[in-house]
Amino acid sequence: xxxxxxLLVVLGGLAPLGAEAYPWMIRHGYSSCATCHVDPSGxxxxxxxxxxxxxxxxxxxxxxxxxxxxxxxxxxxxFGGLSMPEWLNLAMSFRGGALxxxxxxxxxxxxxxxxxxxxxxxxxGPLQAVGTLGFAIKRARSAALTSREENxxxxxxxxxxxxxxxxxxxxxxxxxxxxxxLRNPEHTSWxxxxxxxxTNDQQQHGLAxxxxxxxxxxxxxxxxxxxxxHPDMYRERGYSGFLEWAAAxxxxxxxxxxxxxxxxxxxxxxxxxxxxxxxxFGRWAPTGPLALLAEVDVLTxxxxxxxxxxxxxxxxxxxxxxxxxVHLITTGEVLERxxxxxxxxxxxxxxxxAPQLEVRVDGIVRRxxxxxxxxxxxxxxxxxxxxx
Amino acid sequence: xxxxxxxxxxxxxxxxxxxxxxxxxxxxxxFTGSGPAGFRLEGKTQVLSIREEDGAVxxxxxxxxxxxxxxxxxxxxxxxxxxxxxxxxxxxxxPWSALRLPAPGQSLSQKVSGMMTLHGQRRPVQISxxxxxxxxxxxxxxxxxxxxxxxxxxxxxxxxxxxxxxxEAIVSFHFKKD
Lengths: 388, 178
Prior knowledge:
Order of helices and strands of chain A: HHHEEEEEEHEEEEEEEEEEE
Oligomer: heterodimer
Shape of chain A: globular
Structural class of chain B: mainly beta
Radius of gyration of chain B: 18 Å
Mean pLDDT of chain A: 90
Largest interface: A-B, 26 and 17 residues
Low-confidence stretches of chain A: 1-19
Largest sheet of chain B: 9 strands, antiparallel
Mean pLDDT of chain B: 88
Number of helices of chain B: 2
Strand content of chain B: over 45%
Radius of gyration of chain A: 20 Å
Helix content of chain B: 10-25%
Order of helices and strands of chain B: HEEEEHEEEEEEE
Helix content of chain A: under 10%
Structural class of chain A: mainly beta
Number of strands of chain A: 17
Number of strands of chain B: 11
Strand content of chain A: over 45%
């Protein structure tokens, strides 16, 4: 019974909680992320142009807006109620919902509060500074500024950067999302969890250089460690990066690489651990409403005195925009680790009821990697995401 | 043979290689633009008309048929920047004397000069084109670099994103020649 409860707690953190990054924007010819997101590799805070696209391309159409022929001011900060100078970009993001897990005859229901963050970007010419500050009732410990068991202040990202005049280059230093693979919103997907590159709390401090061209984009980051975890012996050092090429406006292929070393691995506690992840990913919109996203990563982990553990993680996702603002999402996942092979499948629906207002429902079934046959775990996640 | 027919024959025989061009099927007309941070923009239409005029061939695109994939952007493009109400067409005129046709089974590529009329402005442009003589028809494709400022078009800027003034128009179509 305790094992099952433990499993449920673990899976509670593994359900595909949302972030704000939509790789399926490739269907609209947006192969790069930097026009809509402050982070050149995608996700998180939107630029004013990105806010406009949330109404023009993402949200369900609204008769009044169409008639007006312009983006409504309400896409701005706080429904456009607070006008801001050009040098300041503010946003608030809330994500929360409910999670139902069923495994081994036991059902658990719990609320989930994923993010309640205030985000700010200050720009002056080529210089910019970005910071987020939020509150997490549970989890997100790796991004926490405080060290309580619950109710922590979290700072997921904060960095200063310098961009080239055409904004094709950005060098930045601070705490950032690791550039690796798809910047998919399901931060608990195995490709994100197994590579430790999710956007919930696995940012690291370091120095990064991003390039965004018309067909080629990429970012490489020298990882100095996550200075919000203590003590230092658990911090990882190394690099992470990706390169993505747009073969066509609606098709890209990319490769990623990550190598880190820590005196002690934060998860396993093993000494002198070298962790590697190398993989391929791609995005393709073969027809207007359909977008396919795929990623596969080879994983290795070696600790002093121990064998090298080999594994892989993969994800294939199809996002079908049935009509504007309504998406059906099917996902298949695989995770091979030394414990065994895990498989997962998901079926979800996302409703973009208004600009930056999303309701999403996901049904997931997973069999975790385990030496012995693990029970199937069924999850139902509902979430509301509002960005002001 | 009547005098009228004889005159017509003389005129036809005097026409250079591109006389009697008949476009086959739909054409592909695109323009591509770019902006900061990897922004790319593409507009498309399949509507292209070809006509002969005064020793030249004229390619005309009705600009209100251009689509970029985003309706609001299309509206801005047509109303604010191209002003299609006042300037409904873009026309490229190339003198026949500058054009060559490949022999059957052959291809050729060439650069020629032409006159582009866009947004009420008429300016010389350089055209790069390729022609392939395949079976009973020709496959043509060409590119024309354009600068919006030179044609008096306001450079598009929206929500902090400003498009570069240099764009490229790309046209491809199949045709038959008498």
